[in-house]
Write a structure and sequence with these properties.
Length: 415
């Protein structure tokens, strides 16, 4: 079975060599030479060296300074074991790395990482792993912040991990079946309207894929957000807030049911459909949607309920976009104590790119057209180590035990 140009036969689980052979062209195409820091030609360290340090720091959830020291040690050790050239004297320290990152601003960062994600998504589409129409979810995630609330881009939040403040990021992610590609991520400040964030995310995502339905958290249950969704003419589903009127309406309705509902105040309101269904625990719950067809509305709300788990104690741990956030922050997000929001945004956007690349490398085509897209069970942490190994091979060449797989044409990139 040919997958992204790599012939893995009919093995259920590919070998390490096959995984490296499949990952290397993806790393070469979407990371190497694409993530350029603002360094001059006479700089002591190359772009690839900085990229290796960034990936190493990210997959080990380390800080810049600690990641630099650890990377120097491991490179020297691997050089003795696998025959790599030692990099003990050829690795920048953490302060140097942060110095170059701080040269960017928000407007410069987004195009760089958007182009990488765009290429990853387009290759997934060409490979047939993303369907023509997809369901997407929009949500926000918080990264705890321990500085002052007056620092740039800091927002308030519920007490968690010893702080009431955080840096907030909004994302739009494909949640079609087992697919989890993050299409766009934006930093959110306390001065930005959430409806403007939703509009920007939908605009950028629509350039990559065709959106069939949009699923949003209960936190997006506002007149402005619903107005934006209706303006863009997207079919949406939002869990209804359990206000007294909605609670009373749910109590009187048999399930499933759909009712016209007015949201907002007398001076500012919007109309939508209130769909009443049973949640995963058999209790009544309500969704707000603009879907007019009764069967389609109730069917999608039941599907969305599997993601949102409304009425369940695990609502905050819904497996859709929350799973993406969990893996992105747990396996690919570097740590930092910097107050500079550009550094934090850089780390988050890099984590999203690594996550999307992991999704692409993890997909394999079905053996027949009627089967769904399958996944290798490749842990994110192992994938990160493979990416780092591929970046080092671009400088030093593959070690002796890995030379054989590259003697043929197994590293070509399809599409």
């Amino acid at each position: 079975m040919e997958e992204f140009g790599v012939n893995c036969g009919r093995q259920r689980k590919p070998t390490t060599r096959q995984l490296v052979a499949k990952t290397m062209p993806l790393v070469k195409k979407y990371l190497d030479g694409r993530l350029n820091l603002k360094i001059k030609a006479n700089c002591r360290y190359s772009q690839n060296t900085y990229l290796k340090l960034l990936v190493h720091t990210a997959i080990n959830k380390n800080y810049a300074e600690g990641g630099s020291a650890d990377f120097k040690h491991k490179c020297n050790l691997d050089g003795m074991i696998y025959g790599f050239e030692p990099f003990i004297k050829n690795c920048p320290d953490g302060d140097t790395l942060l110095y170059h990152i701080k040269k960017f601003n928000d407007d410069e960062l987004y195009p760089v990482f958007d182009s990488i994600n765009e290429g990853i998504v387009q290759q997934a589409i060409r490979a047939g792993t993303i369907p023509p129409m997809v369901t997407v979810a929009i949500d926000c995630t918080d990264v705890p912040y321990y500085g002052k609330k007056t620092d740039p881009m800091v927002v308030g939040k519920k007490p968690e991990k010893g702080t009431n403040y955080s840096h907030r990021y909004a994302s739009i992610t494909i949640v079609e079946g087992g697919l989890r590609y993050t299409l766009k991520t934006l930093a959110v400040s306390k001065h930005v309207l959430i409806s403007d964030v939703v509009s920007a995310l939908l605009l950028d995502a629509s350039k990559l894929v065709k959106i069939s339905h949009v699923l949003l958290d209960r936190g997006f249950y506002t007149v402005d957000v619903i107005t934006v969704l209706k303006k863009h003419d997207y079919k949406f589903v939002i869990p209804g807030k359990m206000t007294p009127p909605i609670v009373d309406l749910i109590r009187k309705q048999d399930v499933p049911a759909i009712k016209r509902h007015k949201i907002g105040t007398r001076s500012k309101f919007v109309y939508a459909n209130l769909v009443v269904v049973n949640d995963t625990e058999g209790k009544k719950c309500a969704f707000i949607t603009n879907i007019e067809d009764f069967n389609a509305a109730t069917a999608l709300c039941k599907t969305a309920d599997e993601i949102f788990k409304v009425g369940s104690p695990q609502y905050s741990k819904r497996w859709g976009i929350e799973t993406t956030y969990r893996v992105t922050k747990h396996d690919f997000l570097a740590k930092t104590t910097s107050k500079n929001p550009v550094v934090r945004l850089f780390y988050m956007l890099l984590a999203v790119c690594l996550y999307n690349l992991w999704q692409l490398a993890n997909m394999r085509l079905p053996e027949s057209p009627v089967q769904k897209v399958k996944k290798y069970e490749l842990p994110a942490r192992i994938f990160g180590a493979i990416v780092l190994g591929c970046l080092r091979m671009f400088d030093s060449g593959p070690p002796k035990w890995l030379i054989a797989p590259y003697s043929g044409s197994g590293t070509t990139v399809a599409g």
